[in-house]
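Hi L.,

As promised, PepSY domain-containing protein:
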Amino acid sequence: MRTLLAPLALAALLLAAPLALPLHADAQDPQGTADYARDGVRSGEFVRLERLLADAERRYPGRVIEVELDQDDDEYEIEILMRDGRVAELKYDARTGRLLKVEIDD
């Protein structure tokens, strides 16, 4: 199950949430993904999103435009609009924080 979070909502959630979690809401299950992510961080199963965002922005400076948590694979997907106008999509293992894949869209 994959869901999206609008950039403004992401910014608000990151500022409001002390755990800085990926809080994507599915239209049919508004709290399901958020709770799943929050529980994963609290239990120590998932790495904190802020760690992954810092790594992604260090690798590809720009503006984070989208964050997703794929619950089926326990992978975070972070999209960054780079300064040159291209979009970098980085996939991270939610459990280890390891960068799995990078795609650059022209």
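The radius of gyration is 13 Å.

Thanks again for sending the construct details.

K.
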